[in-house]
Amino acid sequence: MMKRVIWLLSGLNRRMMKLLFALALIAYIACKSIQEHAEMNIEQRIDEMFITKEICLLSPSFSQKYPPVKFLSEKDRKRILITGGAGFVGSHLTDKLMMDGHEVTVVDNFFTGRKRNVEHWIGHENFELINHDVVEPLYIEVDQIYHLASPASPPNYMYNPIKTLKTNTIGTLNMLGLAKRVGARLLLASTSEVYGDPEVHPQNEEYWGHVNPIGPRACYDEGKRVAETMCYAYMKQEGVEVRVARIFNTFGSRMHMNDGRVVSNFILQALQGEPLTVYGTGSQTRAFQYVSDLVNGLVLLMNSNISSPVNLGNPEEHTILEFARLIKSLVVSRSQIQFLPEAQDDPQRRRPDIRKAKMMLGWEPVVPLEEGLNKTIQYFSRELEHQANNQYIPKPKAARMKKGRPRHN
Ligand SMILES: NC(=O)c1ccc[n+]([C@@H]2O[C@H](COP(=O)([O-])OP(=O)(O)OC[C@H]3O[C@@H](n4cnc5c(N)ncnc54)[C@H](O)[C@@H]3O)[C@@H](O)[C@H]2O)c1
Ligand SMILES: *[C@@H]1O[C@H](CO)[C@@H](O)[C@H](O)[C@H]1NC(C)=O
Ligand SMILES: *[C@@H]1O[C@H](CO)[C@@H](O)[C@H](O)[C@H]1NC(C)=O
Description:
Layout: H1 2-39, H2 42-58, H3 60-63, E1 79-83, H4 88-99, E2 103-108, E3 127-131, E4 144-147, H5 154-159, H6 161-182, E5 185-191, H7 218-238, E6 242-247, E7 250-251, H8 262-271, E8 276-279, E9 285-286, E10 289-290, H9 291-302, E11 310-312, E12 318-319, H10 320-331, E13 337-340, H11 355-361, H12 369-389, H13 398-403
Parallel strand pairs: 1-2, 1-4, 2-3, 4-5, 5-6, 6-11, 7-10, 8-13
Antiparallel strand pairs: 9-12
The protein binds nicotinamide-adenine-dinucleotide and 2-acetamido-2-deoxy-beta-D-glucopyranose (2 copies).
One 2-acetamido-2-deoxy-beta-D-glucopyranose binds near residues 370 and 371.
């Protein structure tokens, strides 16, 4: 009996020994390979990671996730804050700075901006989107600030004039305070509206403007004027580097469809087969720049050494009637052109003097009107399609717009 037990145990032991030996061998091999891996330096491992990443990028499902961006060295790569970056101009600026390889943080309260305008960057390692109102202070580390946050078209800035004032005053103070604290350079998106109802044509940067401080547009015009004042106070008193762009009428994809401006009105009317409404004879002129021209100008100005205000706009004037005919033909629309009584207070001309930008930045608009219009028409028609697919077709708010004076903006 005893012998049997011993024999069994030793048999078991022999089997156990074999098992233990096998386990030890496996453990040894595993350890050895881990050790070897650890001995590979970190750089090599990151390189390896990039190679696998690149392989992933070669397959279409990955490469289509983000548009390809440039790779900048640490010296050239900047941390850039764009306030109002989910808006029309801001989102195009975001695209350019991302493609150029910078780290972009968009701050927006989505008053008139949309997440959709920047959705193609969400999740990208160089991109950050913060839902924040610039009227509240913000603490982040950045090298440059493009300060665009502000409603921009009359229906939007007149919707809540007090908020428009707060955004342009307190919001600008907050951003200048941030610039001072972190030593960043700030570019203010100012406007041609600082010239008000101008008495000189075309307007150059020396002109002080002609603004009614208590008129319906004052919340915006005076808000931007005092925002400029703040920039120069911070520059003189605190040494903050500032750039001021006085932006003239701009159009392009992602612009607001129902903002009552002449280009968006005509495109919408033409696409929907409604009459294109021209106030007066249609001989008033307007000048519009395409958004990509503006964005190039903003980036050039930011990186220049010009701290005084610079006009950015397209001096090429067209009559309202020319716009109507051109848009009608590009849309291939059966719409009629309808003439309505002249609107009072409708400025006859508005045109930028861009000699300063030409001379000091080497900048001028290059996108032909027709090309810009085609792209904008494409965007509008896709938007209308989306709306139709959702069974939701909001009409332009005609009743609301009529309350104010109808005018071509
Ligand atoms: N589009 C033009 O023709 C034009 C002309 C002159 C000046 N500008 C200036 O350019 C800038 C951008 O204009 P846009 O046409 O892109 O208008 P937009 O309305 O599309 O963009 C403005 C953005 O600012 C955001 N915003 C508004 N208030 C904010 C707040 N308190 N905090 C955070 N975000 C806020 C909005 O949500 C929006 O995304 C504005 O400062 C505007 O005054 C534009
Ligand atoms: C700006 O830079 C240019 C050359 O880069 C120089 O000639 C010019 O003097 C500078 N201007 C100011 C105001 O510093
Ligand atoms: C714009 O579109 C029209 C028709 O849709 C086309 O004939 C024209 O060549 C386009 N122009 C430009 C500059 O792209």
